Amino acid sequence: MDMNTFKQEVIIYSKKIGIDKIGFASATTFTELRSRLIRQQELNYQSGFEEPDIEKRVRPELIFDKPQSIISIALAYPSKLKNAPQSKKGERRGIFCRASWGTDYHAVLRKKLQLLEDFITDKAPGAISKSMVDTGELSDRAVAERAGVGWSAKNSMIITPEFGSYVYLGDLITNLPFEPDQPMEDQCGTCNKCVDVCPTGALVQGGQLNAKRCIAFLTQTKGFLPDEFRTKIGNRLYGCDTCQTVCPKNKGIDFHLHEEMEPDPELAKPLLKPLLTISNRDFKETYGHVSGSWRGKKPIQRNAILALAHFKDVTALPLLVKVMKEDPRPVIRGTAAWAVGKIGRHEAVSVLEEARMKETDEEVLEEIEKGLQFTLETQ
Ligand code: B12
Ligand code: SF4
Ligand code: SF4
Fold it and tell me: Does the reported pTM lie above 0.90?
């Protein structure tokens, strides 16, 4: 089989099935990534969502028998909401990041990779491949970078010249020796906007992220949000797009190429108050198909409470008080107590004191104290 002709056939087929960009990489060890991952581990900068075994991440032969090449695919997703609902006084809304708009991208990319895999196996009997999207061992970005899909930017994203950074990535490891493509030149140049605007200073320097400070990570944690970040997450319910929205390379980029990725504006920017008491069943039915629901409803509800505090929405006070008194989960009761104090100020003293009398959970009691501290502040 002539591998160059076959590579062209694979490229043509990928376009036909709606893969927006494809690149080919060798399957040799990712040496630079290895040092970077070790360094990140030493600094305690990893999120904990990555595969913990660094060798598996950097040596494809540990997860696939005799790998010869890795195909990287990218699918562009929308960056602008059509008919975006407005956040109004008394009807405040939160926001899910763009990577959580539409149907969960894992499912969409897996389908494309399966089609690609079938095509390859059909044309090249004996071909074996293994696909992954996000949850696999490999660094999807390191593969995309090596395959020339985009450059590794200062906001730590892979940026493609065509679709900006608003692309999902997937990989297909194969036992076929496809000719590798060339990596792309860095195009950030002297720009440093993303590093300068990151609300938590999570971008320690261009290309290096302390994931533990990254709002995208923090919105996905299940415990109490550390105090220092509570006023920084704004109305974000899941994920953070700030280092992408400020990026000049994303200016004017808004692709609507995949029907499954079309966001429902009411789910991308939902009303906050109804989220506080949504049942498990309703949460699953409404949000179960979006990627931002993978950690369940608790982090989203905690963030919704913080968003109401961010807006100082006094119309939410009765509901927050009810949640503070009745929710069975300490994280939710405690965060609500904090928000009640923050929004209600001196008017919240009696409800917080009453809650303090009845509460038995130590952590919630601490949050009630913090809420009471706010009531002493003047403005
Ligand atoms: C863990 C994880 C997170 C963590 C940590 C993110 C991070 N930057 O490391 C958290 C929860 C914070 C996160 C957030 C987001 N994530 Co995420 N995440 C992952 C996951 C599972 C692993 C990433 C990882 O291993 N990071 C460790 C770092 C060290 O490596 P890396 O970024 O993968 O690789 C680069 C660096 O190592 C760098 N590098 C290597 N050596 C060196 C040396 C030097 C000197 C320098 C400067 C750089 C450098 O080059 C590599 C290639 O770019 C991947 C899926 C996967 N399996 O790869 C998705 C993935 C990276 N996430 C993705 C997305 C969409 C996001 C969010 C945009 C979601 C959102 N809107 O909230 C944010 C973006 C935040 C940001 N600025 O990075 C996409 C990225 C698509 C793209 N175009 O780049 C991925 C690839 C998922 C997917 N399959 O589409 N994520
Ligand atoms: S996603 Fe948000 S918090 Fe994380 S690095 Fe980008 S701007 Fe900073
Ligand atoms: S904002 Fe500037 S430095 Fe950051 S990723 Fe975009 S081009 Fe690169």
Answer: yes
